[in-house]
Automatic annotation (TrEMBL):
<dbReference type="InterPro" id="IPR024960">
    <property type="entry name" value="PEMT/MFAP"/>
</dbReference>
<keyword id="KW-0808">Transferase</keyword>
<dbReference type="GO" id="GO:0032259">
    <property type="term" value="P:methylation"/>
</dbReference>
<keyword id="KW-1133">Transmembrane helix</keyword>
<feature type="transmembrane region" description="Helical">
    <location>
        <begin position="95"/>
        <end position="124"/>
    </location>
</feature>
<keyword id="KW-0443">Lipid metabolism</keyword>
<dbReference type="Pfam" id="PF04191">
    <property type="entry name" value="PEMT"/>
</dbReference>
<protein>
    <recommendedName>
        <fullName>Phosphatidylethanolamine N-methyltransferase</fullName>
        <ecNumber>2.1.1.17</ecNumber>
        <ecNumber>2.1.1.71</ecNumber>
    </recommendedName>
</protein>
<keyword id="KW-0489">Methyltransferase</keyword>
<feature type="transmembrane region" description="Helical">
    <location>
        <begin position="165"/>
        <end position="185"/>
    </location>
</feature>
<dbReference type="GO" id="GO:0000773">
    <property type="term" value="F:phosphatidyl-N-methylethanolamine N-methyltransferase activity"/>
</dbReference>
<keyword id="KW-0444">Lipid biosynthesis</keyword>
<dbReference type="GO" id="GO:0006656">
    <property type="term" value="P:phosphatidylcholine biosynthetic process"/>
</dbReference>
<keyword id="KW-0594">Phospholipid biosynthesis</keyword>
<keyword id="KW-0812">Transmembrane</keyword>
<dbReference type="InterPro" id="IPR007318">
    <property type="entry name" value="Phopholipid_MeTrfase"/>
</dbReference>
<keyword id="KW-0949">S-adenosyl-L-methionine</keyword>
């Protein structure tokens, strides 16, 4: 059962009207919105592939933009934490090293996901017509679905604990919500892409 009083006390440390906090929320929400809109536009029109001369070049370009946006998001997240107070009871070695461990696990999931999927698999290559031969089931996909997203969320959670930051914890919740929405939006569409691929193979 959730301790409502503790939650109220925790988020009493957070000024949600702070400009830095608002910018961080917007950057978190913008990223998955951006890459989903652009990727679906590409899937429908093949406009980026035409502009860059090939699907691979277009996918690499979008991937580079997403990486830059993720760096901007992380910077905004960190600045928002710095501008708001720490939770004194959590500003200790135990919390710091717990956060470090959580971030390490998150980093493991992110890196291993990237290695399993490759660049185009990670950065929406299927929307560009660059399809994988089969579904990836090796680690970390053998442990959980969408390990890239949840690994990234864990990194932010660990980073927040390392800074004893209630603002960081609230922003981490925003990250988790934005990824949950992205998964609900992306999952069925990606499955449909591969369903069409299978139909095409069977009809030959």
């Amino acid at each position: 059962q959730v301790d409502v009083a503790a939650m109220v006390q925790l988020f009493g440390y957070v000024d949600v009207t702070d400009t830095g906090f608002i910018v961080a929320v917007l950057s978190i929400a913008f990223n998955p919105f951006f890459w989903n809109v652009v990727a679906r536009w590409e899937h429908k029109t093949r406009a980026l592939s035409q502009i860059f001369g090939s699907p691979h070049a277009a996918c690499y370009c979008l991937g580079a933009v997403i990486l830059v946006l993720n760096c901007v998001r992380s910077h905004c997240f960190t600045e928002a934490m710095k501008s708001q107070p720490k939770l004194e009871g959590w500003d200790c070695h135990w919390t710091y090293y717990s956060g470090l461990a959580i971030s390490a696990v998150g980093t493991l999931f992110v890196i291993s996901s990237f290695l399993a999927l490759g660049f185009t698999g990670t950065f929406l290559g299927d929307y560009f017509g660059i399809l994988m031969e089969e579904k990836v089931t090796s680690f970390p996909f053998s442990i959980l679905d969408n390990p890239m997203y949840w690994g990234s969320t864990a990194i932010y959670l660990g980073w927040s604990l390392m800074h004893a930051s209630p603002a960081g914890l609230l922003l981490t919740a925003v990250v988790a919500i934005s990824y949950t929405i992205a998964v609900l939006y992306e999952g069925p569409f990606t499955e449909e892409i591969y369903r069409r691929k299978q139909k095409g193979v069977k009809s030959k």
